[in-house]
């Protein structure tokens, strides 16, 4: 299975319909992360772009996954296949018997 970076341009002006769909978008993102289909999800500070890393076999599968986003009608996704994606794993501190 490969990983893909999806860069998504968001609209400059957020309509009421867009804003109303944000809770559903967050819920869908959380579901996809729990399923291991979505590895990361980030939003720029100015709300203009989203980035996410997706695990999939093909670019078509990535587009299929992104099309499930409730906000897809407002998105312009660009997909890039990644050679690698190094991340720092969140870890608990080492337990000491001392």
Structure description:
By secondary structure, the protein is an alpha+beta fold. It contains two helices and four strands. It has helices spanning 16-34, 59-66, and strands at 2-9, 38-43, 49-56, 76-82. Strands 2-3-1-4 form a four-stranded antiparallel beta sheet. A hairpin with a 5-residue loop joins strand 2 and strand 3. The longest helix has 19 residues, at 16-34. It is globular, with a radius of gyration of 16 Å. 13% of the residues are buried. The mean pLDDT is 92.
Determine the strand fraction and express it as a percent band: 25-35%
Instruction: Using the alpha-carbon principal axes, give the shape.
Output: globular
**How confident overall, as mean pLDDT?**
92
Query: Helix fraction?
Result: 25-40%
Going across the biggest sheet, name each strand in turn.
Answer: 2-3-1-4
Amino-to-carboxy terminus distance: 42 Å
Number of helices: 2
Largest sheet: 4 strands, antiparallel
- Count the strands? 4
- Based on CA atoms alone, the radius of gyration comes out at 16 Å
- Which structural category do the helix and sheet elements fall into? alpha+beta
Uncertain segments are none
Order of helices and strands: EHEEHE
Short account of what is shown:
With 98 residues, the protein is α+β, with helices and mostly antiparallel strands.
Notable features of this structure?
98 residues; alpha+beta; four-stranded antiparallel β-sheet; 2 helices; 4 strands; globular
């Amino acid at each position: 299975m490969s990983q893909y970076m999806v860069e998504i341009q968001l609209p400059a002006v957020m309509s009421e319909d867009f804003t109303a769909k944000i809770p559903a978008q967050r819920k869908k993102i959380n579901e996809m992360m729990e399923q291991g289909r979505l590895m990361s999800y980030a939003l720029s500070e100015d709300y203009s772009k989203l980035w996410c890393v997706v695990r999939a076999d093909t670019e078509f599968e990535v587009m299929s996954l992104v099309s499930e986003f409730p906000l897809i009608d407002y998105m312009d996704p660009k997909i890039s296949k990644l050679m690698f994606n190094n991340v720092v794993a969140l870890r608990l501190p080492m337990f000491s018997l001392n």
